Amino acid sequence: MPTPPRPAPLPRASLTERRKAETQLEIARTAAALFAERGTAVTADDIARASGVALRTFYRYFRTKEEAVRPLLADGVRQWTDELAAAPAGPGAPPVREVLERSARRSLTPAGEPAAEALRWTRGLLRAMPDDPALRAVWHRVHHDAEEALVPLLARLTGAGGLEVRLAAAAANTAMRVAVEEWAAGDGAPDGPRGPGKLVVRCLRALTAGLPQLDGAHDRERRPAAR
User: Fold this and answer.
1) pLDDT (tens digit, 9 = 90+) per residue, 21-39?
2) Hey, what's the torsion of the CAs at 199, 148, 171, 83, to 10 degrees?
3) InterPro entries from the entry (predicted)?
4) CATH number at residue 133
């Protein structure tokens, strides 16, 4: 059986763009740690000073103190979408449901202490959100953007389009969000049996059970025509 083709690699960001992204992520980690520790009392000046940058530099990267956590929240989602973008499609490729579950589990299962710490910061952020609507809005915007990014990825993997692929993207994104929120509400370890990596698979299976387009690889000829 021929090996399914892999998508072309994405263009590499410039050195300047990579440095900017690294700086933003470092500030985001600092901001998340402060929010987790102090809640809404954190100021933009607190974040800038703890990050070792001038307040003017902080505002060059972020409009508000709440926006500063966005790169951290988006990082786990980006790992997931990057893996889906690299997954093979076509005859002989694994079922999309399997690919989706495996990539979601990996993105939410920390591979080391830095990743586990990022998840703990995310837990602290989620616990601070009920008292900070602006922080909660950042969380929901991150997931809105994730859902939009999933649509073309799932369209390529499933061969579906329109309503079917939008439903699949919405279900997958919701599974990711609910898994993290459920874990954050408890005290389980990031890599434990009640960790987000375990929970996301349960959520995916519950929310995508009625989506048959995820059960096979991208193969239009074998899928019965819609009636």
Assistant:
1) 899 999 999 999 999 888 8
2) -50
3) Homeodomain-like_sf, HTH-type_TetR-like_transc_reg, HTH_TetR
4) 1.10.357.10
- Asked whether residue 20 is assigned to any structural domain, the reply reads no
Query: Is residue 21 in a domain?
Result: no
CA-CA distance, 31 to 45, in Å (whole number)? 11
For residue 17, is it within any domain? no
Amino acid type, 82: D
- Sign of the Cα pseudo-torsion (192, 193, 197, 203, in order): negative
Whole-model pTM? 0.83
Whether the CB-CB separation of 194 and 186 falls below 8 Å is answered with: yes
Instruction: Domain count for the chain, please give it.
Output: 1
Three-state secondary structure readout of the chain: CCCCCCCCCCCCCCHHHHHHHHHHHHHHHHHHHHHHHHHHHCCHHHHHHHHCCCHHHHHHHCCCCHHHHHHHHHHHHHHHHHHHHHCCCCCCCCCHHHHHHHHHHHHHCCCCHHHHHHHHHHHHHHHHHHHCHHHHHHHHHHHHHHHHHHHHHHHHHHCCCHHHHHHHHHHHHHHHHHHHHHHHHCCCCCCCCCCHHHHHHHHHHHHCCCCHHHCCCCCHHHCCCCC
Q: Is residue 159 part of a domain?
A: yes
Angle at alpha carbon of residue 170, lines to 166 and 176, rounded to 5°: 145
pLDDT level of residue 12 (50, 70, 90 thresholds): low
What is the pLDDT at residue 57?
Answer: 93
Q: What is the pLDDT of residues 125-146, one digit of tens each?
A: 999 999 899 999 999 999 999 9
Angle at 14 between CA 10 and CA 20, to 5 degrees: 115
